# Entry
Amino acid sequence: MNTAGQRALAVALSILPFIIGCQSMRSDSITVETPITETPQDEALSKSVRERLLADKKIDLAGIQVVSNAGTVYLSGTVKSLDARQQAIKIAWDVRGVKSVVNSLEVER
# Structure
């Protein structure tokens, strides 16, 4: 085998683990722990986010569950489109007191 062939083989063998690793990764393997209990402040924040979601008349966001913990808002449930998911995230971020948003929303197929 010539030098160019050896280099090509070495490059192919060196990137093979990355190709195989990328194919074996699954996006649904990540799970997010949603808080079970809320403090009174968390409940108030969740309520504010829920009210804002329900006030949106352009997109149906009624199927979204909201839980908060120390300023982090967890959104879960099912929405009808990618636009609805993005709108829900934006609405949550716009509520005073929200420090971060964890999106676990699924889009109907």
User: Anything to note?
Assistant: Residues 44 and 77 are 20 Å apart (CA to CA). The domain at 40-107 is CATH 3.30.1340.30 (Histidine-containing Protein; Chain: A;). Helices lie at 3-24, 40-55, 82-94. The first strand starts at residue 64 and ends at 69.
